[in-house]
Every structure is written in structure tokens, then in C-alpha cells.
Amino acid sequence: EAQVTQNPRYLITVTGKKLTVTCSQNMNHEYMSWYRQDPGLGLRQIYYSMNVEVTDKGDVPEGYKVSRKEKRNFPLILESPSPNQTSLYFCASSFRRETGEQYFGPGTRLTVT
Amino acid sequence: QQQVKQSPQSLIVQKGGISIINCAYENTAFDYFPWYQQFPGKGPALLIAIRPDVSEKKEGRFTISFNKSAKQFSLHIMDSQPGDSATYFCAASITWGRTNAGKSTFGDGTTLTVKP
């Protein structure tokens, strides 16, 4: 089954404790992207990657890191999480020629206390 | 700076009615305009999309109207059904081969409720 998977689906952590949210896709997509969704603010792009070893900042990259060492994986790293990073996070992927048509994962709900 | 403005924030429609959601964008570099549908507890799913060289696109009960000069586009849902009750997001993307390809900006979302 073609899909984007994220782990964990739910995470409660404390301020300053480094964490990684994994994202993996099995559709051979070149393009992957991370978004955060907050009530009333829609989805805001954090980082995106057009291919392996190529990453670019989205609209809200502060406090986040990403890496793209393999085509199928695009982990999101919060090195020192803060409460304002409490949010619902989505990973998405697509073929690079079709970046407007993205497949989204199920989401990761992160709470930072 | 909000580059894509979506309205209304919420919409209540009777079954069989027409639902209309509007979006406006600022950055003329955007060249692809998708709409996504999201049900509670799920990730957004692509519904329909349009390129700026086309003024209208229809897929079943869903139609996108696009006005390039006004930098506006809208989603029309004909014969709205209770199963259409969801949150709808418009988006604007810069696609392959262009500067900043891969950048996507979403509207704030519209919560649609279709009453039986």
C-alpha cells in the first residue's frame, strides 16, 4: 500500500529534551516536506526537500532541523523543544515534478511541557 | 506575512446546497493551486487542483474557478452532502523548474458542515 508513515503518532516531552519524528514513504517520491498545523493557522511549511541531500527552509524553520540522507526518509529533529512547538506535525511527499499534489502522513501530535 | 488568505473560516450548508470557499494569493511565483480535504484525526488529502493557465476545472461535484488577474481562486461543491463535512484548505505551490520550487503555502482552512 502506497503511504507516508510517521512515528511516533503521539509524543509528550519536556522542554529541552531532544527528539526526532521520523517520516518514511514507499512511493519513490523525490520531494518530501514537513508542516505544522495549529488551530486557525492552517498548515505552515517547516522544511522541504527536493531530493537526497537537498533541503530548503519553509516559512517556519526556526527551532527545527532536517536531514535527507535517503530518498524514502525525512526525519524532523527538535534539538531543544520549547512549549511553542506544541503542535500537530505532518509529513508529505510527492514526485518532484508534482510538488503541488502531495500525499500526507497521518500526523504526529507533539506536546512540549 | 500571509500569502494565501482563505474565507470563510466556517460554513454551514444544507444538504443539496452549494458550498463556496474562496482564496486569494499574493505571490505571482505560485504556479499550482490545489485544494485539500481533511477529516478529523487524518492528514489532508488532495481533492482537486488547477494551474493558472486554466480558468476552471471540474471533477464530479467539485469545481475550481481561477481568476489569474485578480489572484483569486475558489472551490465550489455542488449538491453538498453530509459526508463532505470536513476542513478544506486551499494551497499555492511553486513547482519543479522554478526558483523556490517545492515551496507551498496553505490557507487557514474552512470548516464545512453540511446539515442533513
* Radius of gyration of chain A over all CA atoms, rounded: 13 Å
Give the uncertain stretches of chain A in residue-range form: none
Proportion of residues in extended strands of chain A: over 45%
Instruction: State the helical fraction of chain A.
Output: under 10%
Stretches of chain B where pLDDT is under 50 for at least 5 consecutive residues are: none
User: What value does the average pLDDT of chain B take?
Assistant: 95
Mean pLDDT of chain A: 95
Strand-residue fraction of chain B? Answer: over 45%
The arrangement of helices and strands of chain A along the chain is: EEEEEEEEEEE
| Overall 3D form of chain A | globular
Q: How would you portray this structure in words?
A:
The complex is a heterodimer of chains A (113) and B (116). By secondary structure, chain A is an all-beta fold. Chain A contains no helices and eleven strands. In chain A, β4 and β5 form a beta hairpin. Chain A starts with a strand and ends with a strand. Helices cover 0% and strands 53% of the residues of chain B. The model of chain B has no long low-confidence stretch (mean pLDDT 95).
Element layout with pairings:
The complex is a heterodimer of chains A (113) and B (116).
Chain A: E1 4-7, E2 10-13, E3 19-25, E4 31-38, E5 42-51, E6 54-57, E7 65-66, E8 76-78, E9 87-94, E10 103-104, E11 108-112
Parallel strand pairs in A: 2-11
Antiparallel strand pairs in A: 1-3, 3-8, 4-5, 4-9, 5-6, 7-8, 9-10, 9-11
Chain B: E1 4-7, E2 10-14, E3 19-25, E4 33-38, E5 45-50, E6 56-59, E7 62-67, E8 72-77, E9 86-93, E10 104-106, E11 110-115
Parallel strand pairs in B: 2-11
Antiparallel strand pairs in B: 1-3, 3-8, 4-5, 4-9, 6-7, 7-8, 9-10, 9-11
